[in-house]
Amino acid sequence: MTPEDIEKAHGSTSLHSVSQSELESTPTKESHEAIFESKPRSRIIRWCQSFKNVEARGIERVPIEEREPVTSSTTLHMLLMWFSMTLATNNIIVGSMGTLVLGLSFKDAALCGVLGIFLGTAIVGYMSSWGPLSGNRTLIVTRYFMGYYPSKICCGLNIFTNLGYSMVNSVVGGQILSKVSGGHISVLLGIVVVALSSWAMAMFGMKIFQIYERFAWLPQLMVLCIMLGSAGPHFDFNVHTPSSQLELNAKRISFVSLCLSIALAWAPLAADYYVYYPPHVKRWKTFTVTMLGCLQAMSLTIVLGVGLGTVLASSPAYVAKYGSDPGGLLMTAYDSLGGFGKFCAVVNVFALIANNTPGTYSMGMNFQMLGGFFQRAPRAIFTTLSTVIYTGCAMGGRNSLYEVFKGFLPLIGYWVIIWFVIVVQEHALFRRMKGYDWTAWDDPQHLPMGVAAGTAFLIGWAGAILGMDQNYYAGVIARIASGSDLGLWIGAGFTAVAFPPLRVLELWFFKR
After folding, report:
1. Is 10 helix (H, G, I), strand (E, B) or coil?
2. Which of 376, 134, 166 is nearest to 272 (CA)?
3. Which helix (H) or strand (E) holds 473?
4. Residue 397, phi then psi, degrees to nearest 5
5. Domains in the chain, start-ordered, CATH in brackets?
6. Average pLDDT of span 361-368
7. How far is residue 292's CA from residue 286's CA, in Å, rounded to a whole number?
8. Range with the lowest mean pLDDT among 4-13, 220-229, 452-461?
9. How far apart are CA 3 and CA 65, in angstroms?
10. Where does this protein have compositionally biased stretches of type Polar residues (predicted)?
C-alpha cells in the first residue's frame, strides 16, 4: 500500500467512538495541501534547511508518510518526555505559594495542589491525543472547533502565556545561578544564560528535543530526591495562618485554581509534540501516558514546594540567610549540603531549560498561525523574537516574581478552560459523527464560521471577570464569596451554557 493509499484510508470514516474508528477522518482533499506546498519557499527557509538537524517545517500538517514508525519503546518515550518537561522547578515555586503566600497548612495545600494538578493533567492528556490523529498542531486543530479567525485569538493568548512562563523560568534560573556563584554571576547574566540555552534547543525542533527529554528527567529526579532528603526534616506540618472557615475555604479554592492553571498552560501545546506519530496510535493510550507523565512529575514538585514553603514560613533565620525570593527558596533546600548543594541547584537550572524549551518552540508556531506575513516567515525568526521579548521582560520583573506568578497564572486558566469547553462541546455535540478533513486546516471555507465560538468565548470571559479575585481586580461574585477566585469555574460554566444554542443557530444560518 502506498503512502497515498494510507492517507486516503485514514480519511474515509467518521469518528464514532474512542476506538480505531476515532483515528480516521472524512475523505481528504489533497488539493488543499498541494496548494500550500506550491507556494514558493523563501530564501530564509532554504537557509534554515541547510543547517543539519534544524527543523524548518512550519505549521503545515505532517503527512502520514513523514511520521515516525511506532516501536515497542514509543509509549515509554512519550511518558518520559512529559515527565521530564513537567518535572520543573517553577512548579516548586507555585507549590510554595500555598503555604508561604496564602498561609495554608501543609495538608490543605498538598491536597488542594494535587487535586488541581489531577484535573489539569486530564485536560492536557485529552488535547494531546489530537496530535497523532490529525498531524496538526494543537491550535491548528482548534480551527476545526472555533473557526479559522476566532482561533487566532487563542494563538495570540498562547503567545502571551508562553512569554510569561518563559520569563518566570528565566528569572528563577537567573536567581539560582546568582546565589550559587555567591553573586559573581548577576541575576541578569543568569537570565541570559537560561534564555539562550532554551533558544538553542528550540531551534533544532521536536525530534532533537524529544531525544533530550528522554534522558533529562533522571538527573532532575535525583536532585529532587536529594532536596527532599535535605529539607524534608525541616518541613513544618503545623504552620498556617489563622483564619475563619469562610476565608480558609476561599484560600483552598484559590490554590486549587492556581495549580489547575499551571497544568492547563500545557493544554494548548499538548498535541504539538505528537504530530510526528502516526494516526493509528490509540487515543486512550496517548491520553493515559500523557496524563500519567504530567501527573506524577507535577504532583511531586508541587508537594515539595508546599513543604519548602513551610520552612520559610516558620524559620526567619532562613529568610534572613537566603531571602524569600524563589531562588532563596531553592537554596534553603540545600542549606546543609555545602558545595554539593550548589551543584544540585545548577541541575535545577537544567530542569528549567527543559521546561522552557517547549514553550519557546511552540511560540514560533503560534506566531505563524496568525496568518499572512507571519505564516510566510520561518519559525526560526519568531523563536528568536520570542526569546528576545521574554528575556527583556525577565530582566524587568526579576524582583517581583511571586506577584507576577499570583497575577499571571490565573489568567492562563481563564482562557484555556473556556477554550477547552468549546473544543469538547463542538466535538461531542456537533462534529463527532461527521468526522474531519485534516487536510483542510488552512482553508477557511471548509472550517466553521466561528461566530458561535467567538461569542461564547467572550461570554465565558465575562463570567471569569465576575468571579476573579486578583490584586488588581475583584469581581462581584468573588467579593460575595469572601475573596475566593472563582473565575476559572464560572468562566467554564458560562461558556458551557452559551455555546450549544449559539452553535445550533450558526449551523442553521451558515450550514458549517
Report:
1. coil
2. 134
3. strand 473-474
4. -105, 20
5. 3-399 (1.10.4160)
6. 83
7. 10
8. 4-13
9. 5
10. 11-26
356 contacts: CB under 8 Å, gap ≥ 6: 165, 166, 169, 170, 194, 195, 198
Enumerate the H helices of 181-269 as residue ranges. Answer: 187-204, 206-231, 245-264
**Residue 469, strand partner residues:** 474
The predicted pLDDT at position 242 comes to 81
| Residue (of 168, 159, 157, 151) closest to 416 by Cα position | 157
Q: Using CB atoms within 10 A of its CB, is residue 144 exposed (0-12), middle (13-18) or buried (19+)? A: buried
Q: Work out whether strand 469-470 and strand 473-474 pair parallel, antiparallel, or are unpaired.
A: antiparallel
**How far is residue 18's CA from residue 22's CA, in Å, rounded to a whole number?**
5
- Cα–Cα dist 80/59, whole Å: 25
Q: Which three cell numbers stand for residue 94?
A: 507555585
CA–CA separation, 401 vs 112, rounded Å? 22
Give the three cell numbers for residue 144: 476545526
Considering only CA atoms, which of 235, 1, 290 is closest in space to residue 109? 235
The better pLDDT of the pair 361, 27 is held by 361
Report pLDDT digits (tens) over 98-121. Answer: 998 888 999 999 999 999 999 999
List Cβ neighbours of 295 (8 Å cut-off, separation of 6 or more): 117, 118, 121
- Would you give the DSSP letter of residue 430? I
Cα distances from 336 to residues 117, 318, 333, 506, in angstroms, run: 31, 12, 8, 64
Burial class (CB in 10 A: 0-12, 13-18, 19+), 470: middle
Q: Would you call 156 helix, strand, or coil by DSSP?
A: helix
- DSSP 8-class letter at 27: P
Cell digits of residue 42:
523563501
- Amino acid 145 reads F
Cα 144 to Cα 151: distance, rounded to the nearest angstrom = 9
CA distance 170 to 193: 8
Quote the pLDDT of residue 341.
83
Q: Report the mean per-residue pLDDT for the chain.
A: 82
Total residue count of the chain as it appears in this document: 512
Return the DSSP state at 469.
E
Amino acid symbol at 501: P
**Which spans in 50-186 are helix H?**
74-86, 89-100, 106-128, 130-134, 138-141, 143-146, 150-180
Query: Could you tell me if 428 and 16 are in contact, meaning their C-beta atoms sit under 8 angstroms apart?
Result: no
